[in-house]
UniProtKB/TrEMBL annotation:
Gene Ontology MF annotations: nucleotide binding
Annotated organism of origin: Kumtagia ephedrae
Domain GFO/IDH/MocA-like oxidoreductase per the UniProt entry, residue ranges: 135-256
Protein name: Oxidoreductase
SUPFAM superfamilies for this protein: Glyceraldehyde-3-phosphate dehydrogenase-like, C-terminal domain, NAD(P)-binding Rossmann-fold domains
Length: 344
């Protein structure tokens, strides 16, 4: 049994703790044995809710006292670098929530620290673990549409994300860093690495400090072109939060992941339509169930990687490729120029 500790018992960590409990109950070989939060009320509430007795206000003290196989960091970005470096110094494999850090230099330093310590490092970049997006990737790999040459990953919503995550309205950077990072990672996952980024941003909601709308044009190394677009200022006939919609055109056909998880794959012999709705886990709540299932899947993957010694799909090193797209998007939006993310 792998013994883990979770740091940061806030809004999103409840999903991670529910998923860890599922993994323990299903005999998945991992459990959370200790919790840390510098906020005593949040720490006590999580400890009671999940029946975890060992609690700490300080991560360094927890790592010194506990015998752990990994740590799972669910705090917000400003604390990520210090906590990941602390885990590396303690030779502890570490998962860290997205966005990996406030700056690209921090992210690179975190990857370097884990590599120098020889510890596995995974970013909790869970969108590519959403089962509808896995179904899209499988449809590409199945070959029915031939070679993709164009794509779009779109996330447009008017959902009040600020109610659960008030800090999102306060930062100088917003949608590209918080949500765009997922959508850009999805584009990398589906279409491959990127040679050019051209982005434009808008701030529509006056209550939000950073940009809340972004449109990014990606030139992929394999010649495909894709569009990533995100908005938290879109009032739509159907509110689809937190669904990412996907369009892909290939040499032999097309894929459309449209509203409410309808997947249409058109090939040379016609169109196959499937409902790829994610399951509603017992602890999940609509509309978050899609994201919540992906938390369980990525955490299972982490346990699998620790046991087999393989690198996680969203390793710290892999995630530098995604972070470079976020950085390139901000730079492109600020300068009006196309940016090669590989030069950052
Ligand atoms: P939150 O503010 O609700 O919770 C963070 C908790 O961490 C707080 O309780 C805080 O007291 C604690 N904390 C902060 N620094 C600490 C430290 N150094 N030591 C101990 N405790 C510390 O934040 P949240 O909304 O839960 O977001 C956490 C992270 O999850 C963010 O990085 C966010 O981007 C990410 N997130 C991811 C998804 C996803 O789908 N992957 C969704 C929502 C949020
Ligand atoms: O923080 C964000 C995330 O990671 O997924 C959706 C979100 O909760 C709000 O944009």
């Amino acid at each position: 049994m792998l013994n883990g500790a979770l740091i940061g018992c806030g809004f999103f960590a409840m999903n991670q703790l529910n998923a860890w409990r599922d993994i323990e109950r299903e005999g998945g070989g991992a459990r959370i044995v200790a919790l840390c939060d510098r906020d005593p009320e949040r720490l006590a509430a999580a400890a009671t809710r999940f029946g975890i007795e060992r609690t700490y206000p300080d991560a360094a003290e927890m790592m010194a006292r506990e015998t752990l196989d990994f740590v799972d960091i669910a705090t917000t970005a400003p604390s990520h670098r210090g906590l990941v470096e602390l885990a590396a110094a303690n030779r502890l494999p570490v998962i860290c929530q997205k966005p990996v850090a406030p700056t690209f230099d921090d992210a690179k330093a975190m990857v370097a620290a884990c590599e120098a310590a020889g510890v596995p490092f995974m970013i909790h970049e869970n969108f590519r673990w959403q089962s509808p997006l896995i179904a899209v990737r499988e449809a590409i790999d199945g070959g029915a549409i031939g070679t993709p040459f164009w794509g779009r990953v779109s996330f447009r919503s008017g959902y009040d994300v600020y109610a659960g995550q008030p800090y999102l309205a306060e930062g100088e950077r917003f949608i590209l860093e918080d949500l765009g990072v997922h959508v850009l990672d999805t584009a990398r996952f589906l279409f491959g690495d990127v040679a050019g980024v051209a982005a434009r941003t808008n701030r529509v909601n006056p209550r939000v400090r950073g940009e809340d709308v972004a449109t990014v044009l990606l030139s992929h190394e394999n010649g495909a072109t894709s569009i990533v677009d995100c908005s938290y200022s879109s009032r739509l006939e159907q509110e689809l939060f937190p669904q990412a919609l996907v369009e892909i055109d290939g040499s032999d056909g097309s894929i459309r992941l449209s509203a409410n998880y309808r997947l249409a794959v058109t090939g040379k012999f016609g169109t196959e339509v499937r409902d790829v709705s994610p399951p509603l886990l017992p602890w999940a709540e609509r509309p978050w169930h899609n994201v919540q299932e992906s938390v369980l899947l990525i955490q299972r993957h982490w346990v699998d990687c620790l046991r087999s010694g393989k690198a996680p799909s969203t390793s710290g090193r892999d995630n530098l490729g995604t972070y470079a797209l976020v950085e390139a998007s901000y730079l492109s939006a600020a300068t009006g120029k196309t940016v090669d993310p590989r030069t950052l």
